Amino acid sequence: MIRFLLEQPGAGGRLSRREWLRIAAPAALAPAGLAASVRGETAADATAGFGKARSVIIVFASGGQSQLDSWDPKPDAPLEVRGAFGSIPTAVPGTRLCEHMPRLAKLADRYAIVRSMSHEDLDHGSAVYLTLTGHYHARRSSNPPPQPEDRPTHASILKRVRPESPFVEPALHVNAPAIIAPGNLAPGQYGGFLGREYDPLVVGDVTAGPVVIPGLDRREELSDVRIEARRSLLASLDRHLRRMETHRLLADADLQYRQAFEMLQRPETRTAFDLSRERTELRERYGRNRSGQACLLARRLVEAGVPLVTVVWNHQSRGQDNYPDEPDFYGWDTHNDIFDVMSQYLLPRFDQSVSALLEDLDGRGLLATTLVVLMGEFGRAPLVALEPRFAGASPGRKHWAAVYSIAAAGAGVAGGKVIGRSDRLGAYPASETWGPWDVAATVFSSLGIDPAGHYRDATDRPHRIAEGRPIAPLF
To answer: For the CA atoms of 384, 389, 392, 395, what is the dihedral angle to 10 degrees?
Structure first.
C-alpha cells in the first residue's frame, strides 16, 4: 500500500501550499458559473445527433466514480493526486485510461469521453436526483427521500411524451432501485409529480433466478379468453373496492396487475427477460454477477425494442460497509480503501461488463442505433486522504462535482474523441463544461424528441423536456 505523504509542500515535485489550498477547497468555492453550461446555442447544435437512436442505454455508476482512477488519469501529477494506479495507452493515440480498464482501452475508438462534466451538488441523494432528472433538487447537497412532488426521471418523461413502444413498457430501470448509504432510496428514480403510473418498470436482481421476472410462462390451460375473463373479474372487484375506500396501495396494485396481464399476453416480453436463452460463453463474457447480467439484459431489451433502459450498474452506492463479503453490493462511494476496492472489485467488473455490452451491441449491428451513456452522479476529489469518519484503513477520495467524466457510444457518437479537459490535477475544468441537464437533452434529442419541447402534468402545467442542450461535440 502506498503512503501518501503530505508534508514538505513544494519539495520533490510535490504541491505548493497554494496548490494544496486550491484543490482542498470545497467545490462550492469554484468561480461563479464554472459548473453551469452556457444555454441558448444555435439550432444546428441543438440537432446534433437528433433522431439517430432507436434506443438509449444509460449505465449509471452510483456512488461517484473517480474520474482520476478511470477516464481521466493524471500520470504526471504528484503521487497524492494521481493515486496508486498507473495509466495505459488506448486504441486512440494520446488517450490514456486507468490501468484497470484494459478491455475498454482497446475499444476507445468506439466511444467518446467527456472530461469536463461539472455541477454544484455534493451529496449522493440530491446528486442522483440531478443526474436522473436533469434538475437540481430543492435541497442541494443533501439526502432527501423520494417525494410525490419530485421531478420525474428521464424514463417517466419518455413514458409521458412517447408512451407507445414495441415492448410492454417504453422505459425500464434494471438492477434497481439505486440505494444510497445508509440504505435509503435515492430520489429521482420515479414518476414524481406525474404519478406512479409513469414510474419506469423496475427490475431488481437479474441473477436471482433463471428468468428475470418469474411467472411469465403462461400455463397451457389459460387461453386468451380465460385470461381476458380473469382481467374482467379483477376490474369488477377493483370497482367494488374503490366504492368502499380509496387507497394508494390499491391504485399501485392495479397498475402492477395491468402490467402483468400485458406481459402474459405478449410472448416477446417473456422471451426478452429469459437470460437462459443466451449462450453460456456470452453470459460469462458479461460477468456472472448482478452488474454484468444487468448489462446483458439491457442489450436484450434494446433488441426487443425498448426505447430507454437505465442500468443501475451497482444498486448500492456503498454496500461494502455492510456486505464486505458480497462484491455485488460494492459501490463507487469510496471515501477510504479506494484503491483496494476499485482494483479488486469495481474496475475489473466495470471493464468487463461495459466492454462486453459495447462489443455485443456492435457485433449485432445495434450500436449504430443505440446510444450508450456511462455516467455517475459526480466524481472524486483530487486529494487522496484518509477520512476518519468512514470505514476503512487506507486512503480514499471525497465527493467532487467541480469536474468529472462520462463516456458515450453509438447512435452517431464520434468514437475516439475526448471532449473537454480538466486541469493538471483533475480538480477543475480547463475548458467548456457540461452538466447532467445537457446529458438529458442529449438523450431525448438522440431519440428524436426535441429537448426544448414540453410535456404537461396532471394539472395541465407545461414543463420543458430538458433544460440543457445536446452535447454537440459528441457527434
So the answer is: 10
